[in-house]
Specification:
Layout (H helix, E strand, L loop, with lengths): L3 E7 L9 E7 L2 E7 L17 H5 L9 E3 L8 E3 L2 H19 L4 E5 L6 H4 L2 H9 L3 E3 L5 H11 L15 E5 L3 H4 L4 H9 L3 E5 L5 H4 L3 E3 L6 H14 L5 H7 E2 L1 H9 L3 H8 L3 H13 L3 E4 L10 H14 L9 E3 L25 E3 L3 H6 L9 E5 L3 H4 L3 H8 L5 E6 L11 E4 L8 E3 L6 E5 L12 H11 L11 H8 L5 H7 L1 E3 L20 E2 L18 E4 L19 H4 L4 E4 H6 L7 E5 L4 E9 L6 E3 L38 E7 L1
Parallel strand pairs: 6-15, 7-14, 8-9, 8-12, 9-10, 11-21, 12-13, 15-16, 16-17, 22-26, 23-25
Antiparallel strand pairs: 1-2, 2-3, 4-5, 4-17, 18-19, 19-20, 22-27, 23-26, 24-25, 24-27
The structure holds ligand MGD (2 copies), iron/sulfur cluster and molybdenum atom.
Length: 666
């Protein structure tokens, strides 16, 4: 009997592509992993991150047992412990804190490091509701875009991105497709082969901008002014789809009034573009059908991010581009899955109305002395907030509190796990079953376990079952097994077909959106009123200040998840600060010069890269590197030491990119 087996899985990373894969094992050891050639979206390809996934799975740095801290918080000094001992330590402390302060002293903090239905958020909801824990509000990713979009459309649902293949005009607006959503690029290439023009609107000349037919580079955060000027031109030149507006739109007069002051000349000054380019963009967009706007997340990371997405909806709406296959507006399509994967079953034991604390301002929450009760117990899983939350200086200050008990579930000793009192080892995606709803296409993925858990690691769901038992809880719903949890959520999806095939298209794939109204708002109309441009605080800055962007820009990184692994960080070369020739010359800096990049919040020491990718007044530091990748410095650092934790206009997101810094020679 052959001991070689191949199983089908789906990538769990926080990435729109949710690629299908095949894992081959020999005598229980994974020996090969490749893209599933039958997967209609990823078409057999993975990416420079996951092509080395088995090195991640079998890395000598994997956490394989529970750990209990022996050194100071942040030192990374731990000893191994048995599961029984570690669970007992946690259960005892959590009970004691709840007895003293009530359940709300417990804060569960989980991001999207694993997007599988079960691993992302399932039994944890029941367990923390049972404790009466606080819950988090807002998100590092997606909530601003979704909220801004829904203010106009009344729903989160947007156009299937793969229909871009039918477009004749494509605007990639604030999305770096070739880096962040690489499996969509072949569909865009199809459109181009059929004669489409590809336009990129981004403050950075990205790899996607390099591949476009036309690159428009506005000053960061001024897009709403640019869109209002496009609307101004569309109205002035009678390019509005009158029939569509009359039947399916509310608030058109308010939009016209708001766009009146945004002449191309006015917007050109605000956005640092030419009035001529703004007119051309408006005319080409409004007169070419189908025209598709594709956007994702990057542009939401601003104080006025919600307004940007709300304004963006107005473009396909007043021009009727929604009417055409290949037209419309495509952002995350996660909302399409709600009809078929009902995750509200995880809320079966309705939580008491507990307080909500800001997810994105973790540092502020942990250091807020007025909080009653204080957060004295923090659970972190599926995320690395010390590297990924804004104002990392405050996050670390909070995690250093003596009276805070921190529990982290992780695959690796991250910069966050170093602050934990107890660490539990987590499985990787090839060690557990799950289903994966996507946000970049309309296929639901199955994920089969290919190997047994490495060491004593467990899936998140098993951690919650074990913890519930250690806490002495007995409600059966806290112990439901993984397959039963999955089955209980599926609506109109055949479990066996999904498992056997590795993926299924959503039954709604092919459904036309808003071709004839059908928006979520009153009367099924799209509400285009209330769109205003509010300049970000960073628009008024001192002459020697620079706007700092901290974007994703490494093909081998997935947020903070790969920089520490040998085939990733080393090849990307280490952190740096990029600046225009103009800003470098002003400061007497040349390529390779070592500088201080600083503001009131924090300071980094970095080598300079002089670049033609940025305009004057804007600098960029890639995010995702861990502390040990930075040279020098008195204590731990991260790119997010510098970033703003000010609130966004809606959605509880992060204005990472509305940050000001100064740069001086060291
Ligand atoms: N290789 C790789 N791929 C990834 C990730 C990764 O870390 N590495 N992360 C994944 C995750 S979590 C996400 S959310 C997606 C994000 O996918 P994207 O949203 O496509 O990527 P971002 O780089 O966050 O942002 C896209 C662009 O927005 C631009 N931007 C910033 N401010 C503005 C603005 O004011 N106006 C305009 N027009 N553009 C602006 C940035 O310069 C950037 O080029 O990528 C996913 N894919
Ligand atoms: N400056 C700046 N900051 C940013 C961004 C930016 O563009 N600029 N982007 C933001 C965005 S869009 C996002 S989405 C966030 C991402 O930030 P996070 O959500 O914190 O994501 P990651 O950094 O990928 O960390 C995910 C962690 O989860 C762990 N993990 C993976 N699978 C499992 C599992 O099954 N169980 C457990 N217990 N752990 C698991 C991984 O080992 C990894 O350490 O970062 C945000 N931060
Ligand atoms: S990280 Fe994204 S592109 Fe890479 S394999 Fe996973 S889903 Fe595909
Ligand atoms: Mo994200």
């Amino acid at each position: 009997m052959s001991l070689v087996k191949t199983v089908l899985g789906t990538c769990h990373h926080d990435c729109p592509d949710s690629c299908g894969w095949e894992v081959t094992t020999n005598e229980g050891v994974a020996v090969k992993m490749r893209g599933n050639p039958r997967h209609p979206f990823s078409q057999g390809e993975l990416c420079p991150k996951v092509n080395h996934f088995l090195d991640r799975v079998y890395s000598p740095d994997r956490l394989t047992t529970p750990l209990i801290r022996t050194g100071a918080k942040g030192s990374g000094e731990f000893r191994s412990a048995s599961w029984d001992e570690a669970l007992a330590v946690v259960a005892q402390r959590v009970h004691a804190e709840i007895t003293h302060h009530g359940g709300e002293t417990v804060l569960p903090w989980s991001s999207a490091g694993n997007q599988g239905l079960l691993q992302m958020s399932s039994l944890d909801r029941r367990l923390f509701a049972r404790m009466g824990a606080s819950h988090t509000v807002g998100a590092l990713c997606g909530s601003v875009a979704r909220t801004g979009y829904a203010l106009a459309t009344g729903t989160g649902v947007s156009t299937d991105p793969t229909t871009v293949a039918h477009a004749k005009y494509v605007i990639l607006w604030g999305t770096n497709t070739r880096l962040t959503n690489r499996h969509l690029w072949p569909f865009i290439d199809d459109a181009r082969r059929n004669g489409a023009k590809i336009v990129v609107v981004d403050p950075v000349r990205t790899v996607t901008a390099d591949a476009a037919d036309w690159f428009v580079q506005p000053r960061p955060g001024t897009d709403t002014a640019l869109m209002l000027a496009m609307i101004h031109v569309i109205v002035r030149e009678n390019l509005v789809d009158r029939h569509y507006v009359e039947h399916f739109v509310r608030g058109f007069d308010d939009l016209v009034a708001a766009s009146r002051e945004w002449t191309p000349e006015h917007a050109a000054a605000e956005c640092r573009l030419s009035a001529n380019d703004i007119e051309t963009l408006a005319r080409e967009y409004a007169t070419t059908s189908p025209a598709m706007i594709r956007t994702l997340i990057g542009a939401e990371h601003r104080e006025n991010g919600g307004a940007l997405f709300r304004a963006m909806v107005c473009l396909p709406t007043i021009t009727g581009q929604w009417r055409h296959v290949g037209g419309g507006l495509s952002r995350s399509v996660g909302s399409w899955f709600g009809e078929y994967v009902d995750d509200s079953v995880f809320d079966a034991t309705a939580p008491a109305n507990t307080r909500g604390l800001s997810f994105t301002q973790l540092g502020q929450v942990l250091t807020d002395e007025t909080l009653d009760p204080p957060v004295n117990v923090l659970f972190v899983w599926n995320g690395n907030p010390v590297i990924t939350c804004p104002n990392a200086v405050a996050t670390r200050r909070g995690l250093l509190r003596d009276d805070l008990f921190t529990v982290v579930s992780e695959q690796f000793m991250t910069d966050t796990a170093k602050y934990a009192d107890v660490v539990f080892p987590a499985t990787t995606q090839i060690e557990h079953i799950d289903v994966v709803p996507a946000w970049g296409h309309l296929y639901l993925g199955w994920n089969e376990a290919a190997i047994d858990p490495v060491g004593e690691s467990v899936p998140n769901t098993e951690l919650w079952r074990r913890l519930a038992r250690a806490m002495g809880y007995t409600e059966p719903e806290l112990f439901e097994d993984d397959e039963s949890l999955i089955r209980s959520t599926l609506r109109g999806i055949d479990f066996d077909e999904l498992r056997g095939n590795g993926f299924v298209p959503l039954p709604s794939k092919g459904r036309r959106l808003f071709a004839e109204g059908g928006f979520g708002g009153i009367d099924g109309r799209c509400d285009v009123s209330g769109v205003r441009y509010v300049p970000a605080s960073t628009c008024s800055k001192a002459p020697d200040e620079l706007v700092l962007l901290t974007p994703k820009q490494h093909a081998r990184f997935l947020n903070s998840s790969y920089s520490h692994l040998p085939k990733h960080g080393v090849y990307e070369g280490g952190p740096f600060v990029e600046m225009s020739e103009f800003d470098a010359a002003e400061r007497g800096l040349v390529e390779g010069a070592v500088v201080r990049v600083f503001n009131d919040q924090g300071e980094l020491t970095l080598p300079v890269r002089v670049t033609a990718r940025l305009t004057a007044g804007v600098v960029a530091v890639p995010f995702g590197w861990w502390d040990h990748d930075f040279a020098g410095g008195a204590g731990p650092v991260a790119a997010n030491d510098l970033t703003s934790d000010a609130p966004t206009d809606c959605g509880g997101g992060v204005a990472y990119h509305d940050t000001l810094v100064r740069v001086t020679h060291l």
